[in-house]
Specification:
Elements lengths: L2 H23 L4 H18 L3 H23 L5 H41 L11 H7 L8 H11 L4 H8 L2
Length: about 170
């Protein structure tokens, strides 16, 4: 059955789009999160997840939203990052959420250190022609954490429950 695999296509495309958008503008538009929720709903319909399991995934998404907005309230991440984290938590559920959060935090820390180091170096003139590169290099700018959030899911996706569920339906 190919239908459950098709739900992964928008998941991957939307996460790539979120990461790219975040790098270019330090924002993640809401249509990406809406798309991730809709893709998860399609996944539930076609994968045969029991209603109770879908409910725990929904609860994980709500917990992810609360945690994300707590981090947002303290100024650690942006609002788009908080919503993206919640959408990924929805997809993962509680079983894979701790591993994902750890991987995403490590990647986010690495990204932060790399950006801080790069911002101390002079920007080559060829890169200085692009507004998004100037914004990324600006020491007053934040970190496009959507990159770490997307990369974290890509790294652990093959080991997740949702991936195994799809693999058993083929």
């Amino acid at each position: 059955m190919i239908a459950p695999w098709l739900a992964f296509v928008p998941l991957i495309v939307l996460l790539l789009l979120a990461a790219g958008w975040d790098v270019a503008s330090f924002t993640i538009p809401n249509f990406i999160q809406f798309g991730l929720v809709a893709a998860f709903a399609a996944f539930v319909l076609f994968s045969g997840i029991p209603v109770s399991a879908a409910g725990t995934h929904l609860l994980a998404g709500l917990v992810g939203l609360a945690a994300g907005f707590a981090l947002f309230a303290f100024g650690y991440i942006g609002g788009g990052d908080a919503k993206l984290f919640a959408c990924i938590a929805l997809w993962l559920g509680f079983r894979d959420l701790p591993q994902y959060a750890l991987v995403a935090c490590v990647l986010g820390g690495g990204l932060s250190v790399a950006l801080l180091a790069a911002r101390k170096l002079p920007l080559p003139a060829t890169f200085a022609r692009h507004q998004w590169v100037l914004r990324l290099h600006d020491s007053r700018s934040g970190v496009p954490y959507g990159v770490a959030l997307a990369a974290g899911l890509f790294l652990i996706l093959p080991q997740t429950e949702v991936f195994r569920l799809v693999a058993t339906h083929v």
